[in-house]
Amino acid sequence: MYSFNPSFSSADETHVSRASWIEPDTSPGPLAPELLSRLHHYWNAANYLCVGQIYLKANPLLREPLLAEHIKPRLLGHWGTSVGQNFIYVHLNRLISERRTETLFISGPGHGGPTLNACAWLEGTYSEVHPDITPDEAGMLRLFRSFSTPGGIPSHCGPHTPNSLHEGGELGYSLMHAFGAVFDNPSLLVACVIGDGEAETCPLEGSWKSVHFLDPRRDGAVLPILHLNGYKISGPTVEARLADDDLLKLYRGRGYQPIIVAGDDLPGMHQRFAAALNRCDDIICEIQAAAREGSGAVRARWPMIILRSPKGWTGPKVVDGLPVEGTFRAHQVPLANVIGNPEHLQQLEDWMRSYEPQTLFDDEGRLAPELQALTPPPALRMGAVPYVNGGRMLVALDLPNFAEYGLEVPGPGQVIAEAPRKLGEYLRDVMRNNPRNFRVFGPDETNSNRLNAVFDASNRTAAGPCLDIDDHLASDGRVMEVLSEHLCEGWLEGYLLTGRHGMWSTYEAFAQVVDSMVTQHAKWLQQSREFAWRRPLASLNILISSHAWRNDHNGFSHQSTGFVDNVLQRRSDVVRVYYPPDSNCLVNVFDHCLRSRNYVNVVTCGKQPDFQWLDFDAALRHCSQGASIWSFAGSDDEAPDVVLACAGDVPTTEAVAAAWLLQKHVPGIRVRVVNVVDLGILSAPEDRPHGMDHVSFEALFTRDAPVMFAFHGSTWVIHSMVHGRANEARFHVRGFSDLGTTTTPFDMVVLNRMSRYHLAIDALSHLPHLRAHSLDAVHFFESQLRKHHAWIREHFEDMPEIRNWRWTADFSESEAPPPLAKGHVRGQTFTDA
């Protein structure tokens, strides 16, 4: 353990040669003098490239005096984190070369792009995927000119960076991605650099518990490297101000073996960090070997490194009389007025020349041969290991025949079932067929969401000791449950990004916790399409099963449909949104999702007992089309007076019931029912790639008939989808209007004015030619709403005509609800929470 002195900065503004910092090695450590010197020079090269990316548009190797015209007019970038990450990267290269370990580098600190770009260029992988950025002076200049400029590359890690699979624009997700990457990858080491600013985020705070889910028998290892450089943009970070003893206690309590490396002295820091890396790798190998031989603990205490180094290390120490190195002033651009201030320009030149670029690069601008020798073997470079481009590792799933999971439906609405149960059986067999590359992720709700058949194939992963009273819990379980939406979604992302498959299920209201994570992943997929070398990934598949309309028992806190609202803000070529209305449609949709690539698929289908409408063959046809006319529920397929459209299981029930009521109480009315399962097809092809053309759209919805649309979510979604269609004002949408409480199931649709009675009244209000024949029906529907209001307050349940209703072709009143499918449970499960 090394003590930390936060006062790194010196009052001396003079830059000495960075090369001369390495004195003859007298400190103990694993690095021989010659290797230590080369490592230091390689580090100088990476640092030089980072500075060049921020500042230079010309004169990349300073072959002439630095002039104002060589400087970019707009200076962007983050110097403060770059030098510490370069230090780590260079030392990992040494470890990889010596021990032949397949290693990924995840850059957690914000805007760590300069490091990943520089190190990828030095190791050659950048030029391999971007041939115009050649590994010479011309390519160096193009790299500099592309950084944070129009048409160039961002200041954070993105898909353009070959040694990154982690979108670095938002903080908090690095460690969960790292653990997701090593699940079922037994030979992989992920070195995850966590910035001390990032360590303050809630997602990162929650990620430390991931270590308890790591199984050394079958998984790889994560080496967290907490980089404490002291400051965020303007203030100190919490953990950087903790004493070493407190840090050790904190991370031991979290289940790790922490090793602290601290200082700014050279060569001591090189020797200490190299020793820490060796020790960590030794511990990892010991844990894995013992577990795989059967003699070690399954739940081990894994190592981590806490690296204390100055922010902006090796940069300007003082600027305009104010300390910079080791302070928040080093966070972004230490010398901000280079063009207009000759003193700053001179400081920049002195700073860059202090790395002695003439010793790092040859006459052509290529990395000096003796430094190139430090690069790991080609296949082990961190920009070349296949895991970093997970599509290269992707093996298609061995999927069962989804037709074998059809629910028997003798007729529309003639059976009631919990739709996800058959999906659970399908996923069970997906897990059995793919025991090394498919996992199910979710909060503590696999049973609650009716997917419990998966436990026939695998247990939950135990995060600690197993007790006799536990249910389906085992150290080798592959169902990943933890009560954190961040972890579930982040683990799955890491798993997918390294070439595997999976799915995540959750409650609808709380899926919004990860709105930003899904946004970042969708953007990663979108940008990846720009690079042919980025191979397609398995899609991010999300099942929303405990949704707003059937959380009447849990109350307003559990009633929200906004997750899809956020997803639909993403580009249409990377998101798909599905609303299967019943069990057979759900299995059809999910089989399609598991076969898809490079999408975010959101599937919403309730878990409570509900009507089952289509047999398997009908469901297959319906889902293949994305939307279709349900002739059984309507009265006229040619020229309807009104179209009742629906998307979502509860809206479907209400729309079909509304059609039934209209046909029963308004003789002669011509009604068409259209069910939509793939929401995106409502849009025109110019707006969404798989949208319906106008001819197909009008074949479903007609050209001029009024459309009453019952939708699961926000009404604006449908209006935005049909924008630009013929006579779009004829679409009248009812959906979730953020009105809810603890109440009955039917009262939820009443509160949001989407009930069968509201839909029927709305439909008749747009049919003036039937007004004389429909007044009695409207009065009846309105009286039913008043009766409902009083009934539920006296009896605490819905009216018998609601509870016992079923669709019948002769419009007779039902006396009893349809039978339950075998193995399903009638009524609300009030213990679900």
UniProtKB/TrEMBL annotation:
The keyword Nucleus does not apply. PROSITE patterns: PHOSPHOKETOLASE_1, PHOSPHOKETOLASE_2. Residues 607-807 form the Xylulose 5-phosphate/Fructose 6-phosphate phosphoketolase C-terminal domain. Residues 814-833 are annotated as: Disordered. Residues 32-392 form the Xylulose 5-phosphate/Fructose 6-phosphate phosphoketolase N-terminal domain. Keywords: Lyase, Thiamine pyrophosphate. The keyword Lyase applies. Its cofactor is thiamine diphosphate. SUPFAM superfamilies: Thiamin diphosphate-binding fold (THDP-binding) (SSF52518). PANTHER family: PHOSPHOKETOLASE-RELATED. Belongs to the XFP family. This is Phosphoketolase family protein. It comes from Pseudomonas petrae.
